[in-house]
């Protein structure tokens, strides 16, 4: 039995004295300095710059695993714009969810518990901006907003987003109703990333238009008015040279002959079915790991981790 295996499957308890280090892309230690490993082509670079200059969202289409989401992180790191504001989309996502959340129930409960102090409750304590709402806050520098898998949304969400991006502001209706009172003309609320922001007259206006990256797996068509107001970019699957650069960016420049062969095999296999780049990275990491698996185990690892995405891995 190979000594690379931690779990032996022999029902014999044993102590693991040293747990393996995670792959660089799976290291969640927030104290570790982040590294930009995204490999941007000239087409991608031009599209990003056009979106920045024109204050338009960037609609990025491509197959899963082509680096669409990584682009947002690469922009934020290179331009020192802080942590990416992340809004994952599903069929139930609404514009309201992206803008802000008002916890009316918590406010009512606090008022009932503190009857004598209910008039002193700060409504701002019950409002939290969403990723989109935070991105729209005025600041000296734009924020990077990743709206991930917009093609999974309800049919109305893309057009709802257009109104926000065209108008450049939104209203917190719970605050706007109270602006006639002096105490509510300026209210401090919590942002998506845990900071504070002062809302004036119940309205948040965009000073620096955010760098908006909207990703799509191409599962649906978008309305023409929506596409007209976006900078469209399709990210192609990386070629052999680009794959090599991606592996080097994550795992170092000294690639073994096995890894070079693995990249060639990946390119050939990808022509016959759906594979994602991170599958290649997973195999490369396992084959470079210490202790190394033996030849038979390498074959098993490769077949399992480089199985086509439309199979279970056992076919």
What is this structure's SSE topology?
Blueprint: H1 42-54, E1 58-61, H2 68-78, E2 85-88, H3 95-99, E3 100-102, H4 104-113, E4 127-129, H5 131-135, E5 144-148, H6 157-167, E6 169-171, H7 173-176, E7 186-190, E8 196-200, E9 203-205, E10 211-216, H8 224-228, E11 231-234, H9 240-251, H10 257-270, H11 277-288, H12 295-305
Parallel strand pairs: 1-10, 1-11, 2-5, 5-10
Antiparallel strand pairs: 3-4, 6-9, 7-8
List keywords for this structure.
315 residues; five-stranded parallel beta sheet; two-stranded antiparallel sheet; 12 helices
Explain the overall architecture.
Helix content is 36%, strand content 14%. It has 315 residues and is of the alpha/beta class. It has two domains: 42-234, P-loop containing nucleotide triphosphate hydrolases (Rossmann fold, 3-Layer(aba) Sandwich); 238-305. A hairpin with a 5-residue loop joins strand 7 (186-190) and strand 8 (196-200). The relative contact order is 0.16.
Looking at CATH, the homologous superfamily of the largest domain is: P-loop containing nucleotide triphosphate hydrolases
Low-confidence stretches: none
Tally of DSSP helical segments: 12
- The CATH architecture designation of the largest domain is 3-Layer(aba) Sandwich
What number of structural domains do the residues give? 2
Assess the beta-strand content as a share of residues: 5-15%
N- and C-termini, Cα separation: 25 Å
Shape: globular
* Main beta sheet strand tally, sense and closure: 5 strands, parallel
Q: Quote the CATH topology of the largest domain.
A: Rossmann fold
Structural class: alpha/beta
Query: What strand line-up does the widest sheet have?
Result: 2-5-10-1-11
Which H/E pattern describes the elements?
A: HEHEHEHEHEHEHEEEEHEHHHH
Got a strand count?
A: 11
The Cα radius of gyration reads 24 Å
The top level CATH class name of the largest domain:
Alpha Beta
Average of the residue pLDDT scores? 88
Helix content: 25-40%
């Amino acid at each position: 039995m190979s000594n690379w295996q931690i779990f032996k499957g022999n029902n014999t308890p044993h102590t693991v004295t040293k747990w393996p280090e995670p792959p660089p892309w799976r290291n969640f230690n927030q104290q570790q300095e982040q590294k930009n490993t995204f490999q941007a082509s000239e087409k991608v670079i031009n599209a990003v710059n056009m979106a920045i200059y024109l204050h338009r969202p960037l609609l990025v289409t491509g197959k899963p695993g082509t680096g669409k989401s990584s682009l947002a992180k690469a922009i934020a790191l290179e331009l020192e714009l802080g942590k990416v504001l992340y809004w994952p989309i599903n069929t139930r996502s609404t514009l309201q969810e992206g803008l802000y959340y008002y916890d009316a129930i918590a406010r009512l409960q606090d008022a009932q518990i503190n009857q004598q102090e209910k008039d002193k409750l700060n409504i701002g304590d019950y409002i939290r901006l969403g990723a989109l709402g935070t991105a729209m806050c005025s600041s000296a520098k734009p924020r990077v907003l990743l709206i991930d898998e917009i093609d999974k949304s309800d049919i109305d969400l893309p057009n709802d987003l257009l109104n926000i991006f065209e108008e450049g502001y939104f209203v917190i209706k719970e605050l706007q109703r109270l602006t006639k009172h002096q105490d509510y003309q300026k209210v401090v609320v919590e942002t998506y990333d845990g900071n504070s922001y002062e809302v004036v007259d119940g309205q948040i206006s965009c000073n620096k238009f955010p760098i908006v990256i909207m990703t799509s797996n191409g599962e649906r068509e978008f309305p023409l008015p929506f596409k007209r107001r976006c900078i469209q970019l399709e990210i192609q699957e990386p070629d052999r040279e680009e794959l090599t650069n991606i592996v080097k960016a994550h795992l170092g420049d000294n690639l073994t002959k096995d890894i070079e062969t693995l990249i060639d095999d990946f390119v050939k296999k990808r022509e016959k079915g759906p594979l994602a780049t991170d599958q290649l990275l997973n195999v490369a990491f396992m084959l470079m790991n210490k202790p190394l698996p033996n030849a038979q185990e390498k074959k098993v690892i490769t077949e399992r981790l480089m199985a086509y995405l439309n199979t279970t891995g056992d076919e």
